[in-house]
Specification:
Layout: E1 6-11, E2 15-16, E3 22-32, E4 70-76, E5 79-87, E6 89-94, E7 99-103, E8 107-111, E9 116-121, E10 131-141, E11 152-156, E12 163-167, E13 173-180, E14 205-211, E15 216-219, E16 227-234, E17 238-240, E18 243-245, E19 249-253, E20 259-262, E21 268-275, E22 283-285, E23 288-290, H1 293-306, E24 326-328, E25 334-335
Antiparallel strand pairs: 1-19, 2-3, 3-10, 4-9, 5-8, 5-10, 6-7, 6-9, 7-24, 8-11, 12-13, 13-14, 14-21, 15-20, 16-19, 16-21, 17-18, 17-20, 22-23, 24-25
């Protein structure tokens, strides 16, 4: 008798449940109105808790932004952020003097390591129509030996990220975007140095799947004991190994068995987070993730003393006026997507 593939399920809320080596996942989807010429929304901000606007009034949020939506300068230590932007743009700035504008399929992979401040603002550039933003922010833990590595970020430009289509016997397709991992046969881009994902034996995978209606395919098996979460966040009627499951749920799957998937009668979208657990004690307080409580206190002390390098920008919510997609690294090197220079 075939064993059931789903170990447990959990309904999706604003913050999605994760499993080691992942710490955090949020799917941001904000239907921003047209811009006001100053990178903020043209609509009134009355009725919003400015500085802490997470309610989703009228289909969008200001988050911690006061005039421009997003996340003004804030610190991190001890883990990595992987920001996968599907639609819209993000402006990055950090305490090392690095900057960037990325979006419309790009990914930024940032190692906070020993400590960094950064801002993530969502400039509303379109003044004549809507400014929809959709992204995943994923936190990937660092093992103890890499908690204090130098901060670093890499850009995965949309034009370079592997995308593979699988066609079933009925001509239906699933399109797979591979941010990390080789589960579906693609060779991923290299993550930053010192990442848990940098060792292929850790089998870290981040995949976004766009499913045709009624497409059928297999999620291949990996190593026993890995953590595999399937987030069915758009669509209804998914069938997992013969069992229909509801949408807007996370399904924790057995990692050492292939899983048969059949989509329902409408297109669907899935995120898969997969990988070998780090299996170390996690102590988290806000933006810091360490292994011991005293290390959290040390992080606060260090931040108060050093500001993780300070803040070299004129404001804590900078946007990059007149720029297209680009990245400027701490060493001054600039890079651009190959097709948008």
């Amino acid at each position: 008798m075939k064993h059931k593939s789903i170990l447990y399920a959990q309904k999706l809320d604003f913050q999605w449940p994760t499993s080691d080596p992942f710490l955090f996942c949020v799917h941001h989807e904000d239907l921003y109105p047209k811009g006001n010429g100053k990178f903020g929304p043209s609509d009134s901000l009355q009725g919003r808790q400015i500085g802490q606007d997470f309610v989703g009034k009228d289909g969008w949020r200001m988050y911690h932004g006061e005039t421009i939506p997003g996340f003004p300068g804030h610190p991190h230590r001890g883990f990595e952020t992987v920001t996968v932007v599907q639609r819209g743009l993000v402006d990055h700035a950090d305490s090392q003097g690095a900057a960037g504008r990325y979006g419309d399929g790009d990914v930024q992979w940032m190692t906070a390591g020993a400590g960094i401040q950064h801002s993530e603002m969502f400039p509303l550039l379109n003044e004549s129509g809507e400014n929809t933003l959709e992204l995943f922010q994923i936190w990937l833990n660092l093992p103890a030996k890499h908690k204090f590595v130098d901060p670093h970020f890499k850009m995965f430009w949309n034009e370079d990220i592997p995308v593979k289509s699988i066609t079933d016997t009925n001509g239906k397709q699933v399109k797979i975007k591979t941010v990390a991992g080789s589960l579906f046969g693609d060779k991923p881009l290299d993550p930053p140095p010192n990442s848990w994902a940098g060792d292929p034996t850790n089998e870290v995978g981040i995949y976004i799947l766009d499913l045709d209606a009624e497409v059928q395919f297999l999620i291949p098996a990996t190593t026993q004991g890995n953590n595999r979460n399937l987030y069915y966040f758009r669509g209804e009627g998914l069938v997992v190994d013969g069992t229909q499951v509801p949408g807007k749920h996370m399904y924790n799957l057995k990692s050492d068995e292939s899983v048969e998937i059949r989509n329902g009668s409408e297109p669907g979208r899935i995120l898969i987070l997969d990988g070998k657990p780090i299996a170390e004690t996690v102590v988290q307080y806000g933006p810091f993730v360490m292994n011991k409580q005293e290390e959290i206190q040390q992080a606060f002390d260090d931040y108060r003393k050093t500001q993780f390098g300070g803040w070299p920008w004129d404001s804590y919510d900078p946007v990059h006026v007149g720029k297209g997609r680009f990245a400027k690294h701490a060493n001054g090197k600039e890079e651009f997507p190959s097709q948008s220079q």
